[in-house]
Amino acid sequence: MIVKTLLAAIVAGLISGVFTTAAQELRVTPLILHAEEFEGEAPAAPNQPSGQQPAATDHQHSLNDASPFGTMLATLSPITPAYAHEHEGGHEEGGVMFGMSRFSGTLLANLVTGAGFSLLLAGVSLVIGYPITIQNGALWGAFGWLAVHLLPAIGLPPELPGFPAAELGDRQTWWAATVLLSAVGLYLVALRREVIAKISGLALIAAPHAYGAPQPLDISSNVPAVLGAEFAVAALATTLAFWLVLGVVSGFINERFVKPG
Amino acid sequence: MATSTVSSIPLSLSDRLTAGFVALMIGAFLVFGAGLANSAVLHDTAHDTRHAYGFPCH
Predict the structure, then answer these.
(1) A160 and A220, same structural domain?
(2) What's CA A209's distance to the chain center, in Å?
(3) Which residue from A86, A160, A227, B34 could staple onto A113, CB 3.0 to 4.6 Å apart?
(4) Which of B18, B28, B40 sits opposite A94 (nearest CB)?
């Protein structure tokens, strides 16, 4: 029964992943490709015309060369030297795995991400004891989108290739912490009745923004601002569609195939 | 309210929690691998997905 429950979540995630891949081709992927035409011209960013080229060393350079402050952070951070060591060891050469095309790589990544988010959603549902059904599936999806995409996007909006950004490790830490705090906060606000729970939920949601997302010191970029604005909206709209499909499909599969009778 | 909703998940409490935590762990592993892992091959394969999902990238 446990396996069946997990399989149901994975299937829902794979279906949503296929849907998302199609949805991304409409607007998000063309904007990424467009932005990459400007990416190589950026003075601080090394040439990386497409995802096909070996990127490991380039990334390391971009972290170190970005700014004096970035260098200082790289020196202080316990994570970055380890990455640098790994890359200098020559174990990783980059490139899309298995020699797949760029589109296949994106499809594979969407399937994995879809299954991952679906399992996380199912996991939360199982642990807190509120099942995902057809009726509340869209609501589950909307809350997933709020926690994973909209609330973190307030501090770190979806970024195009070539955009200026703070050190990667700092941003990933802030992003992961914000997703976690937002999820717990939303649970407290939406599903707990006590006033004190709702207030602490709001405080948890606000906390990472009061702390502040890591920001780049130099915000100049060769990528046109209009592309960035279009991309942010397109990315958030596409992920909203992904989460709504995920929630509803999860609810459908739960009621149709997992629930006995 | 709570009991009536819980009963529609056809698992005992301990099974439900086990399934839930297993799902959370596998899900976090998959999302980390596709979205955050600092491997050049994983990054390049998932490049467009990482940008599209707004994962911190580059």
Answers:
(1) yes
(2) 17
(3) B34
(4) B40
